[in-house]
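Reminder: ligand-aware prediction takes two inputs, not one.
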Amino acid sequence: MPIRFFNTLSRELEDFAPLAPPRVKIYTCGPTVYNHAHIGNFRAYIFEDLLQRHLEARGYEVERVMNLTDVDDKTIRGSRAAGMPLEQFTQQFKQAFFDDLKTLRIKPASAFPAATEPRFLEKMIAMIRELERKGIAYQADDKSVYFRLSKFPDYGKLAHLNLDELRPTGRIRNDEYEKESIGDFALWKAWDAADGDVAWDSPWGRGRPGWHIECSAMATALLGPQLDIHCGGVDNIFPHHEAEIAQSECCTGQKFVQTWMHCAHLMVEGQKMSKSLGNFYTLRDLLAKGWSGREVRYALISVNYRLPLNFTFDGLAAARAALGRIDEWAARLADLAAKSSAPSAHPLAAQTDFESALDDDLNIAGALGHLFNLIRESNRLIDKNELSPADARALLARWQRMNAVLAFDPEAAEIPAEVLALAEARVAARTAKDWKKSDELRAQLEALGWQVKDTKEGQKITRR
Ligand code: AMP
Ligand code: ZN
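Here is what comes back for the chain with zinc ion:
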C-alpha cells in the first residue's frame, strides 16, 4: 500500500508522491519567540517529527525547515515591556525552544531560519517588489504595503472559503484575523510609534515585514519554489497559509505546496490550549511536576494528528504506564537476546503492521495498537519459555526499528542517581541475603515513586 496523507487543500486522502524522490521537502511554521512555547505548540511539532521519522523509516531523505518568528506585534510588545532590545528578548526564548525540542526528542530541522536575519529580510523585500511589479502589491496611504486580493482568485481555496459569500473588509494590518475578515493583508508594515526602535529600511520607507511574507520568503529561499509538504496547526490554515500560497504562487508562478497537513488542537476542557486563554502548560511546568520529556512526548503523539487531543493529567499517567510496559518488555527481550548472537526469522519480528498503519495518514493509534499486541504476544511466549534467545534478538531488532520512529526508549539519566544508588544497595543486600534491609530499601524506593520487581532476570525498577 502506498503512503497516503490527508491533504487540506483537496480534503482527501492522497497517495504521497514527492516531486524528486527520495528527497522530501517539508516546511513547518515554527514558534513566535516571545514566550515559552506551550505543549499545544509542541503537539504540532511532535506530529511533524512523527511525519519526518516515518518518511525516513520508509527510505525518504527529508529536508525540513522550521522558521522562528522573531519579529511581530507580540515580540515587539514583549521586548518593550521587558525593557530589552528585541534581539536579546527573543534570544532567550529561542534557546529555551531548542532545549524543549531536545527534551521531547524532536529531531532538529535541517534549518531554523529567523525572520530578522538580513538575508531573509532581503528576500522578503525582493518578493514584495516582485509582487509590486506585477501590480499585486501596492502601498496605501498609511505607507504600509498590501496584497491586492482581487488579483488572486484562488484565495480561500485552502480554507475552503467561498469569497463571493463573504463581504470584503478593506485592508487588514494585523497578522492574525478571523475568517470573516477577507481583505487585502499587509506585506510590509510602515513603522509606527509602538514599534520603538524595531524597523528596517525598505523601498517603501522604514518598517517591518508582515508575518505571512516571512514564511513565504524563508520557505522559498531555503527549499525552492515548490515544497512537497507544508505543515502547521489548523489555526494556521487561515489566514496564514492562505496568504503564503497567494504570495508565493504570485511570485514564482508555480504551485507552492503539494500536500498541506494540519494537526488538530490540543484542548483543555473543550477549548484550544493557548496563551491568550491562559489555559496552557509549558513543558517546564510539567517537568517541574515530575513528568519526563518522553512521557509528555507519548501523551502528545499517541492520538492521531487530525483528532483533537484533550490534555489531562490522567493522560500523562496513562503515558507513564504505557512506557513502563514497553520498558519492561524491551528489558525482558534484551536479557533473553543477550544469550544469542544471531537473530532468528520469527514471524512476529517479520510483521510490518506498525509501519503500514503509519502509511495510512500517520495512524499512530493503530500503530501503537500493533506494538501492544506484539508486546502481549511475545510476553506470553517468554512466560511459556517458548521464545528462544535468537527470537528475542529478532524481536528486539524489530522494536528498535519502531523506536526509531517513536523515540520512546528510556534514558539512563531519567532514573535519578539517588534511585540508582538505592537499587544497587538493594541488589547487594539481597546477595548478602539481608531480606530486612532489602525490604527497607524497597520501601525507600517506593517512597521516591519507583517500583521494584524481582524477576527471573533480576531486579527491575520502574516508575510507579
Ligand atoms: P504560534 O506560536 O501561536 O504561531 O503557534 C506555533 C504552532 O503551534 C502553529 O503551528 C500552531 O498552529 C500550533 N499550535 C498553537 N496552539 C496549538 C494547540 N493548542 N494545539 C496544537 N497546535 C497548536
Ligand atoms: Zn508560517
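The chain has a mean pLDDT of 94. The first helix runs from residue 39 to 57. We will return to this case in the review session.
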